[in-house]
Amino acid sequence: MKLVGELKDKVEKAENQEEAKKIIEEAGMELTDDEMDQVAGGIAPDFGQFI
């Protein structure tokens, strides 16, 4: 899954992985386990950076 535009900006600004997941789900998208691991694991090219 590749996030672009406003959705990508919102996910990059999320304070944590759970908030990012909620933003993505509210946009009508679902994450696979592998994609969720990318979000939770730090920097992922399609999701942005999470601290």
Any chance you could write out the topology, listing elements then pairs?
Blueprint: H1 5-12, H2 17-26, H3 33-40
Helix pairs in contact: 1-2
Order of helices and strands: HHH
Percent in helix: 40-55%
Radius of gyration: 9 Å
What is the CA–CA distance across the termini?
A: 20 Å
Q: How is this structure best described in words?
A:
The protein has one domain. The mean pLDDT is 74. The longest helix has 10 residues, at 17-26. It is mainly α and 51 residues long. Helix 1 (5-12) runs antiparallel to helix 2 (17-26). The protein has 3 helices and no strands. It has helices at residues 5-12, 17-26, 33-40.
From the structure above, extract its key features.
single chain; 51 residues; mainly alpha; 3 helices; 51% helix; globular
In short:
The chain has helices at 5-12, 17-26, 33-40.
